[in-house]
Amino acid sequence: HGVRRTRQSKEALEAKRRKEQSKLRDYLALTDDVLTRKKRNEWSREALHATTQLLQVNPEFYTVWNYRRRILINGVFPESTPEQIKDLLTDDLSLTMEALKIHPKVYWIWTHRGWCLNNVPSRPGISDDGDPRGWEKELWNQELFVVEKLLDADPRNFHAWSYRRLVLESMPVPKLETSELAYTTRKIESNFSNFSAWHQRSKVLSSLWSQGKLDETKSKEEEFDLVHNAMYTDPKDQSVWIYHRWLIGSGDSRDILEREIAIIQSLLEEEPESKWCMESLVHYKRLLLRNHASSVVTSTLTQDCIQLLDQLRKVDPGRRARYYEMGKVVVIPNCVF
Question: EC number(s) for this protein (predicted)?
Fold first, then answer.
């Protein structure tokens, strides 16, 4: 947008077409060469070089990534020293990094990168600190730094977040989960609309709670404070509301449900067309009906849900049928939803 286009001459267009055809012929010839080598189970360094050339052109060619790994395992690694294997894997990490700069959301690149790190040999002999896993520590620590840089460039790249979990799980010296919790806090506070950061946070908190390393009741209240801030900052952001539902869970606590309903109701008064406010109110009032029917006024809650669903059909007409079906469930006594 806003860029002035220049009209190209017929000669220039023809030259461009010929150049593209030449590149296509070269690519098809290279593809045919690599797949022919693969078919005859060739594990030579020449075959490895051919896969390098092809993957530099098309890093989405997952068959070639698979073939490359087989070449390394069956042909190159057996005739290499541990130092040479480490150098080969480091070269492949560089190859994938160049590919990620242009294609940061291609599964096969991330997969190959993880494979490289999982195949780093133990340091030969005894290292200065007596740790035979010195190479692994060095490369995995470096990888965490790399993935953080990638997430700085694109904080919502779910491929990078998924890969970050792999790195954290694979590090020879595990990183403290409280440190990872702080990392998600920084990412969320810089941009509330980061579903992957919220998701990572839920994973870390679940682990800390299950291990008894963090008081669940106290930390949940802190999480509610964080998510309330996010809800009021951007009530249209879906990721915030999904995280809020995760905090509520199955709705066993009537006090928490009623408190959160009151907070969301207050927000709805400020944002009367917020579909996420309305959907959440319906969801939480239904939880009250299901879990605490003996201590609430069921007729009032049911009517509230029906009215909210009627409003939702107006503000979100594309999902009218969904809200209609939800309304039928609300009026069925003891219905499990």
Answer: 2.5.1.60
**First-last CA distance in the chain:** 48
For 163-169, what is the mean pLDDT? Answer: 96
Phi/psi for 109 (5° steps) reads -70, -45
d(CA 295, CA 157) in angstroms, rounded, equals: 45
- What's the rounded Cα separation, in Å, for the pair 90 and 62? 20
Report CA-CA distances (Å) from 115 to 242, 303, 306. 33, 56, 52
State the virtual CA torsion across 114, 119, 125, 128 in degrees, nearest 10. 0
Neighbours of 84 (CB within 10 A): 13
CA angle 311/226/205 to nearest 5° reads: 110
pLDDT tens across 57-90, in order?
Answer: 999 999 999 999 999 999 999 999 999 999 999 9
Distance of CA 130 to the CA centre of its chain: 37
What is the C-alpha separation between 113 and 61, in angstroms, rounded?
15
Amino acid 326 reads M
**163 Cβ contact list (under 8 Å, min separation 6):** 110, 113, 114, 147
Q: What is the reported pTM?
A: 0.86
Tokens of 302: 């049911």
